[in-house]
Amino acid sequence: MRKQIAAANWKMNGTLQQANELLDGIINEKISYSPHREVVFAVPFPYLILAKEKIKNINGYKVAAQNCYTKSSGAFTGEVSAAMLQSIEVDYVIIGHSERREIFAENSKMLAAKVDVCLANNLSPIFCCGEPLQIREAETQNEYVATQIQESLFHLTNDQLKNVVVAYEPIWAIGTGKTATAQQAQDMQAFIRNIFKEKYGDEVAKNISILYGGSVKATNAKEIFEMPDVDGGLVGGASLSVPEFISIIKSLK
Ligand code: PEP
Description:
Elements: E1 4-9, H1 16-27, E2 37-42, H2 48-55, E3 61-65, H3 82-87, E4 92-95, H4 98-103, H5 108-120, E5 124-129, H6 133-137, H7 141-153, H8 158-161, E6 165-168, H9 182-200, H10 202-207, E7 210-213, H11 221-225, E8 232-235, H12 242-249
Parallel strand pairs: 1-2, 1-8, 2-3, 3-4, 4-5, 5-6, 6-7, 7-8
The structure holds phosphoenolpyruvate.
Phosphoenolpyruvate binds next to strand 8.
């Protein structure tokens, strides 16, 4: 079975004290994980080492950065390189979150370079894609998402793609409380899997984890995660609450 993942995207939230409380609250629940399930903490940069330390020797937990830069070192004040993340044994990096695309003007070419630099440093990208509201209303979301994937991932080899996780995040559902219906998520995620099938073959497509993101919470996670092409979620707001996120973890297939 392909990996089922509950990824907590804390964004730019939480003090050190809150980070400790959140991580401890979830880890102390002592959830037992079957090998195909994984929980990922995408914490702000200052808390990565802390998160790594806390999950050490516990099954089922991984740590993600929320971004990295394309260059390995140099005069790029304020940036963090993939090599630095690798040196502290980070597992994943979120690449192409819609907030990075919209607020920080990250384009497909830049994201392709970020994917490359992650893979070159043994970090698995969690590649985000998803359409804004006007594209959904015009019913052109499939073409829009296909282009995002083609432009930033299609240069990868079969072997490289095996280390990529995709997160479909319709922008109109992020942080809005408006969730895509389970069927809307399933339709897009089946479409995405099919794009990979056409380019990389059935075996690769069957094994790639595709998460859904956009106002996932305790009350809707099970219905969404039950869909055959939804392999868990990338969770923003609800991942900042211990009981909410525990319930989301327990909703994984
Ligand atoms: C996200 O940040 O990726 C996200 C999906 O946020 P939220 O769950 O708050 O909509």
